[in-house]
Each structure stands twice: as structure tokens, then as C-alpha cells.
Design a protein that fits this description.
There is one protein chain. This protein is of the alpha+beta class and 453 residues long. The chain has two domains: 280 residues, DD-peptidase/beta-lactamase superfamily (Beta-lactamase, 3-Layer(aba) Sandwich), CATH 3.40.710; 79 residues, Lipocalin. Helix content is 25%, strand content 26%. The protein is built from twelve helices and 25 strands. The strands form five sheets. Strands 1, 2, 3, 4, 12, 13, 14, 15, 16 and 17 form a ten-stranded mixed beta sheet that branches. Strand 14 and strand 15 form a beta hairpin. Helix 3 crosses helix 7 and helix 3 crosses helix 11. It is globular, with a radius of gyration of 22 Å. The two termini are 42 Å apart.
Length: 453
């Protein structure tokens, strides 16, 4: 394990060149944070991590680990990561910027920007608006049902614009538009697509012109140069194995962006309103609450999520692809922010919130212990009639796969107590008098028993 920690001189020079001001960080307990994060690398929770911290007008970046599990190089703030759904916040700001410029309106119908031969779903005479897409309240599903990837390790690469148009033209909404929230990669991908159609250019060119160039974010994009590819980290799946990068040609606005930590720091500074920017009005508009979200104390702006903790309000989002996890969150009033980039499946939300809420003990990762007699846990556990948790094992490592979901590793605390790294959830196994496993309890937003079948 190799650690790299440095003041972000390159970032400072770039911001000064673009008219933004920045100062060095000297009031974080960086040593304590770094020591805790180091346990995540040493104990196999993460291959590489880059964590950015902002407090008032002070910034710091901590880089740990390697670009790849095998034959990797030491990570620093110039290495590039996939950020998955944090791309949605760029699309939200892009929409806000085009609204500010008078190019579109939030209430505009999506159908107005699609080709004439595409029929956009409607319900009870109501049409889906740009705002509905940006707030996940369009009634469109998470993904289209005609998505059948040839390569599950790069599931969006072969989904075409024509596939999207065929889905939209044949889909019937199951509920009223705006009635409730359903997180939709399809909806945000469609939003990026129609904004690009309106501008007459690709999504990537539009993002570069309207956002990345004004913010001097030169290491952010979709198609990377040869030099940038040399700094592109390798993603790792839930088993810790290297996996393919994701390509989202049709749904670029939902999750296609890649960037460096230096560029993520610029992005966080502007969103926190710590630094002056020509995009300040658009950023502010993107943070304004438009609707309640699907969880208590949660609401949504234009893609950005807002968590109300009483005396504190956090603007945040997370992201994930097949090999990466990412988090960004900040309290604008306190001028405090954190981002986390990982090229593996570590629980970056846990890292980000622990730092924001000063719960640094939660950053420490326990040593992973291989499970003896792992076969006794293997089997299917019925949570509900149509929802099964399937437990498998590979070389003493247990995995759980829920119906319709991907497989995730669980880690041993004791013979019957296990936990996930990717989400805040635990598993307790139940045994009979002979020591055979008879069921489990999923501890996530309550206790949910499941019998072994």
C-alpha cells in the first residue's frame, strides 16, 4: 500500500488562472482522517481512494493506494476516475444554465425537443417536462425494458438512441406525472440527450462548452485523450477483480463522466459558493428545492439531493459504475465539503458522511476474516414470496445476491454476524441446535427475517 498526500498546487494554479481564489488547508485533522482511511486500503476494502476536503477557504486532497490491484501505480490527484451518477448533477447544472440563458424553460415539454417521429409518453393529458426529468418525477422507470446488454460488464454501451426512441414511443406511464419520485437513469439520460439536441451538439461537447471550459476542468470528460488514458485508473468489482470501464453513449447525462480529483475539487468549490464563477446563478438554481425525495428529510433540486438535518442542510449525490464508487457532499452555510473517489466497491457514502459529521471512528475498517465452513451458509433465503437472498461463497468469502440485483460481498464479524461494505446493512444468521443455518435477518431500515429454503 502506497500513500500520497499533497497540497493541491496544480489545482491552485488552475483556479487562480480562471479567476478563482483558494488557500491551503491547515485546520483539518488530516492525519487522523488519513490514518483511518489507510485501514481501508490495508484491509482490502478499497484498491485506491482519493478524498477531497474543503473547510472555509481551505482545501486538501488525500490520495491512497493504487490505480490497479495488479501492476498499478501510486494514485495522486491527477488520476482519473469514473463518477457514475454524480454526472447527473452536471446535467442538472447544465439545465439550469440553459434556463438562465433563456434557451429552455423548466416547464418545457420534453416532446418539444424530440424528433417528430418519437411519441413521448403522456398521462391524463399531462406531458413530461424537463423539470420532471431533473427531479425523477416523470413516471419513467429506472431503466427501459428493452435494454438487453450483450456485455453485462459494460451494460449501456450497446443501447442506442433508436432503442431509446422505440421504448419511449411504446411505453405507457403507470402513474401520474409528478405523483411520486422514482430514481431514473433513463430520465436523466433522456434529459442530457434532449438538451444536446436543443444545442445541436453532443452531450460531451455541450458540457465542455457550458461547464467544463468556464471552470477550467480540463481533466473531465467522456472520451479521454491518450495522455489522460495513461492516468485513468482501473475499476474493480465486488470481488476485488479488475473490470471494464462503462460507456453510456445514449445515457451520457446519467453517468458517463470521468474526472480527476483536482477537477472534482474545482467543481466542489464552485458548488459550495466558496469561489466566484460565471456559473454561480446556474449552480444556485440547481440547488433550489423542487420536490420531496423518496426518503425522510430528503428533497431534490435539479438532480442534486438535499438532506435536512435540522440545523444543517447538505447538498449531495453519489455514483457508481461496475468498478467505481463516488460521493460528493457539502454544507454551504458551514462552508464544509467532502468528496470521495474510489476505483473499487468501498462504501464511499459511509466515508463521506463520517467526515462531514465528524464520526472518524466510522472510517476505520476491520481486517477481513475468511469464513470457515463457508458452505453451511450457502443457499436461498426467502425474504418475501417474490424476493430471495441467495448466498454463495468463493474461497471462504460470502456473497449475497438479491432478486434482480447484483452480487455483493458480506464480511464476518462473528460466526453469525456479517456486514456489507457497499451499503449500511448487516446480516445475522440463525442456527438450529445442531449448528445448521436455518435463516437470516437482514438489518437495514429495520429487521427483516428470511427463512432458508
Amino acid at each position: 500500500m502506497v500513500m500520497n498526500r499533497r497540497f493541491i498546487t496544480v489545482f491552485i494554479m488552475a483556479l487562480m488562472a480562471s479567476g478563482l481564489m483558494v488557500a491551503y488547508a491547515d485546520d483539518f485533522n488530516v492525519d487522523e482522517i488519513e490514518a483511518a482511511l489507510k485501514t481501508r486500503i490495508e484491509n482490502g476494502y478499497a484498491v485506491g481512494l482519493t478524498v477531497g476536503l474543503v473547510k472555509d477557504q481551505q482545501s486538501y486532497i488525500i490520495s491512497l493506494g493504487q490505480s490497479a490491484k495488479a501492476n498499478g501505480f501510486e494514485i495522486d490527484a491527477d488520476n482519473i476516475f469514473e463518477i457514475g451518477s454524480i454526472s447527473k448533477t452536471f446535467t442538472g447544472i447544465l439545465l439550469a444554465d440553459m434556463v438562465q440563458k433563456g434557451e429552455v424553460k423548466l416547464i418545457d415539454s420534453v416532446a418539444d425537443y424530440l424528433p417528430d417521429n418519437v411519441t413521448m409518453p403522456t398521462r391524463n393529458g399531462q406531458q413530461i417536462s424537463l423539470l420532471d426529468l431533473a427531479t425523477h418525477r416523470s413516471g419513467l422507470p429506472r431503466l427501459p425494458d428493452n435494454m438487453a446488454p450483450k456485455d453485462i460488464n459494460n451494460p449501456y454501451v450497446d443501447y442506442s438512441v433508436q432503442d431509446l426512441y422505440e421504448f419511449l414511443s411504446g411505453y405507457e406511464l403507470s402513474r401520474d406525472i409528478g405523483a411520486e419520485t422514482e430514481y431514473s437513469n433513463l430520465g436523466m439520460g433522456l434529459l442530457g440527450h434532449v438538451l444536446a439536441l436543443k444545442a445541436g451538439m453532443s452531450y460531451e461537447d455541450l458540457i465542455k462548452q457550458n461547464l467544463l471550459m468556464p471552470l477550467a476542468m480540463r481533466d473531465t470528460g467522456i472520451e479521454l485523450s491518450g495522455e489522460q488514458l495513461s492516468r485513468f485508473t482501473t475499476g474493480h468489482d465486488v470481488a476485488g477483480e479488475a473490470t471494464a470501464h462503462w460507456d453510456l453513449p445514449t445515457f451520457a447525462g446519467a453517468g458517463a463522466l470521468r474526472l480527476s480529483a483536482n477537477d472534482m475539487m474545482k467543481y466542489m468549490w464552485v458548488n459550495m459558493d466558496v469561489a466566484a464563477s460565471a456559473l454561480a446563478d446556474a449552480v444556485t438554481l440547481s440547488h433550489e428545492i423542487n420536490a420531496e425525495f423518496a426518503a425522510p428529510q430528503m428533497s431534490i433540486g435539479l438532480a442534486w439531493l438535499i438532506r435536512d438535518d435540522g440545523d444543517k442542510s447538505y447538498v449531495w449525490h453519489n455514483g457508481g459504475t461496475g468498478g467505481y464508487r463516488s460521493f460528493i457532499g457539502f454544507d454551504k452555510q458551514a462552508k464544509q465539503g467532502v468528496f470521495v473517489l474510489s476505483n473499487s466497491q468501498d462504501n464511499v457514502d459511509r466515508i463521506g458522511w463520517a467526515i462531514l459529521e465528524n464520526r472518524l471512528d466510522d472510517l476505520i475498517a476491520e481486517k477481513i476474516v475468511k469464513v470457515k465452513d463457508a458452505d453451511k451458509y450457502v443457499g436461498d433465503y426467502q425474504l418475501t414470496p417474490d424476493f430471495i437472498l441467495s448466498v454463495s461463497q468463493e474461497d471462504g468469502q460470502l456473497y449475497i445476491q438479491a432478486t434482480g440485483q447484483s452480487k455483493n460481498a458480506i464480511y464476518m464479524k462473528s460466526e453469525n454476524e456479517f456486514y456489507f461494505k457497499v451499503v449500511d446493512a448487516q446480516i445475522s444468521f440463525k442456527f438450529d441446535a445442531n449448528g445448521a443455518v436455518t435463516g437470516l435477518i437482514l438489518h437495514q431500515n429495520g429487521d427483516h427475517p428470511a427463512d432458508k429454503i
